[in-house]
Write a structure and sequence with these properties.
By secondary structure, the chain is of the alpha+beta class. It has 2 helices and 4 strands, in the order ββββαα. The chain has a 4-stranded antiparallel beta sheet, covered by helices on one side. A hairpin with a 2-residue loop joins β1 and β2.
Length: about 80
């Protein structure tokens, strides 16, 4: 398993710890404990599909911040991993 950790600005001065894990079977698992949220998606999915999945999950979770910006930040973490 490969892991990554980054602090991402959620809104204003709120920084949240974002944990990203890549499993041996090619899945990504992302978690943001501050908002009690996590999601998983497949490595083989295109970035646009991954982005849509993350954004939908954040909206479903009733996250009130900028879901576009947060999903984009997570995708950027995936690209660096």
């Amino acid at each position: 398993m490969i892991s990554s950790f980054e602090k991402i600005n959620l809104s204003g001065n709120k920084l949240a710890e974002v944990f990203l894990n890549k499993t041996l079977d090619g899945r990504y698992i992302v978690a943001i404990p501050m908002i009690n949220w996590s999601a998983s998606f497949n490595e083989l999915d295109e970035f646009t599909h991954q982005f849509d999945h993350l954004q939908t999950s954040l909206n479903h979770h009733l996250y009130e911040g900028d879901t576009d910006k947060l999903a984009e930040a997570i995708i950027n973490m995936v690209k660096q991993l």
